[in-house]
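Researcher: Sequence of Ankyrin follows. Predict its structure.
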Amino acid sequence: MSNCNCELHFGVITRTLSPDPTGRSKRLVFFNGCIVTLIPPMVPIRKNTRLGAPVPRITPGLNIRDPGPHDCDDYKSGMPGYHHSVDGLKLACKAGRLDQVRFFAEGRSPMYLTWGLHEALDLGHLEITRYLLSAGPFIDLEAPFIAARSLSIPIFESLLEYGWDVNNPGMGYRVVLRWFLKKGANPNLGAPSNPSGNRGPNENSGNTLNAAAGRASVAVIDMLLEKGARIDNSAALHHAVASDWPVTDRLGMISHLLNVGANINYVHRDEWFVRESMGTALHVAARLQRVQEAKLLLYGGADVETKARGGRNALDEAIKL
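Model: Prediction complete. Tokens:
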């Protein structure tokens, strides 16, 4: 191989090749038994003039996918044992080696950096997370979900510092949820009422309370209500009845929701598909044949005659089954 120099850098053997047709020199990198290639990126990085650091790209709708062999400039056709240079960055992040992360990340594109960010967030590597955020990755929809697994508040503080919005979608572990709310997350903000058209978030959504009623604890319900969640926006009772939790947990959630003001006869219509209707919580209990839940709702004053869209009451639902 002509015009080739080898060097050892951060424990990684690199070999510089002659320039390709674009005039860019390639480096083969041997890292942890993998062969990867690096090419200086052609995409310029925007600078933060105040801090002198690259600005992270906040891309709420972006889904990062595994690049195919022709999706990145680092592809080298026909090389046995080839792995994308992304592998080197991910391995360095997993190992917690900031020196090697710097080596792989220097001058790279935002999408490339996002792969490393996901690894650092997942393992709670704060120093590496902060370094990658300063380098300017996409902060995509997956980032807060991955970060939530670490249950690390400093990780979320770092995301916030580098431009992440706490009202972006995320996960609701109690410690993390408390931090979100403290930082101004709106518990009444949800997906657009209608998915068609270019509509913004729904500011009178019950999505958060619905999710909490079906998947969380009464403590989370109380936390959301204390921060202004409006129970009259939600179908929390419906979601509690339909929850996959054990029956005793479902009954406890239903009782708690009734105690904090949930409307037992609220007729819920699907926000996205207006012709569909879940009816009342009693309709849901009848539809799912949840006898204990139906008894509790009837004891609490549920009206058997309340009709869902389409004209059926809860008794009709039970007879239909």
